[in-house]
Amino acid sequence: xLLLTVLIVSFARPPRLAPRAGRIALSAxxxxxxxxxxxxxxxxxxxxxxxxxxxxxxxxxxxxxSTGDTFVDLGSGTGALVLQAAAEFGAQAVGIxxxxxxxxxxxxxxxxxxxxxxxxxxxxxxxxxxDAAADILDRATVVYCSNLxxxxxxxxxxxxxxxxxxxxxxxxxxxxxxSHAVRGFxxxxxxxxxxMSWDIHDLDHPCPVYMRGYGTPDxxxxxxxxxxxxxxxAVPGFSSDDTAEQRVDPLDPDVERDAxxxxxxxxxxxxxxxxxxxxxxxxxxxxxxxxDVDFRSLPRHPVGQSVRTGSGRAFYVTWPxxxxxxxxxxxxxxxxxxxxxxxxxxxxxxxxxxxHLVSGEVNLISAFYVVRSKCDHTNYHRDWVTDVGTxxxxxxxPLHDYKIxxxxxxxxxxxxxxxxxxxxxxxxxxxxxxxxxxxxxxEYRSGKAIVFASQFLHGTETxxxxxxxxxxxxxxxxxxxxDERWRWAAIGRTASQQARVVARANGVLELSEFGKSxxxxxxxxxxx
Length: 528
What we know:
The protein is of the alpha+beta class. The longest helix is centred in the last third of the chain and has 15 residues, at 513-527. The strands form 7 sheets. The chain has an 8-stranded antiparallel beta sheet with strand order 13-22-19-25-17-16-15-14. A 7-stranded mixed beta sheet has the order 3-2-1-4-5-9-6. A 3-stranded antiparallel beta sheet has the order 10-11-12, with no helix packed on it. The chain is built from 15 helices and 27 strands.
């Protein structure tokens, strides 16, 4: 429930913080400060600009900043972001600033901040890239550095300092990418877009994001150390000295892991996808939970509708009416119904089987049925953003074996993009699929489940049900992933739009972003 509280706070009106400084010319520094700053960071290092409050909210959402985190701003200026991290997100927050005048401005702003924020904030005057900052970075979980105008020497010092930070530092963002390797971190495929004080035309600045990841950036970026000599970050389920045979995933012998921790299914010729066996009798229990539901008569309301079965199970029915299909999503909608599906999820041994692929414990996010009798156009998509990696999954299995019309090209199965090699993240992945990929069909079978994470491009094939009276095909689906709360920033971009309620951790349901939008709409309707 902790993250829910943080999200509610983030939508509230922020407390009054220090006045926006905007762009301050070098001459705004006194002579002593100007000499100090330019001596360490180069002739342009004294030019000042800052991330706005709106921009910092984008930053905080990307990293899942919340109570329990320690946010550090390297070169914190007048302290606005440090104060916002504490007051709005409940994080411990530390700002390190070299210029005495800016440090004093931050202390002045701190003196007028709310008392609860003051207790969480520390401002330190000094060189943020020096050895003196090491103890602070050893406590940091999220870091920001406004490095746009620093010279190469200072950039290299910051890269080295961040690479030597404590293991709890999960990521950081900059204003421009480092040209130097950062040990233990890899640059994410997509930046976080943040509004800055100099963006007078409402254009957000792409801030590169670095996350603690697999492999060695030194080797990838031309550093002197090799992959064998530099420290490695452990890949869950595998040791750093695995042989080629050991790189076969024990969950599915057709899946291999490469040196950078990515997974590839050699039989399906696609990244981050597994096929696993399921106990048919346990899946039959999931079918029994909806046995008294007439799926063909379910409502197709634009924003969805609550449904309770004769056996008392609660579901929320949504209809993606932008898809050229009659598909319905029937998701669990109260704690007892969720618990019944979680019991099935655990009896299928999913947490144990996929535990080596995620950080922390496996958490069931939601469970639902997908119901459809026809599809007029394939809507190709990826369920999870690239940054999720294998920290979240979608599992799909049919409740029954459904007839397939083999005499037609439109067989109403799963169409996906196959490629012969690992797909690289981001635009490179997209180009790889477009240049070397081809469409393949996966046929759903009772007792089998297809399970996929990020980078798996797929959609429902065109066609229609040929069951008696055109009865729809019904599939049991689980979304599940890491229970580490900070990963929700990426996982939630999908999961929060799929159901009215979701479980982020510990199996306790809470309103999703979709659910909150429904609540706001209902409140507005009552007010009218």
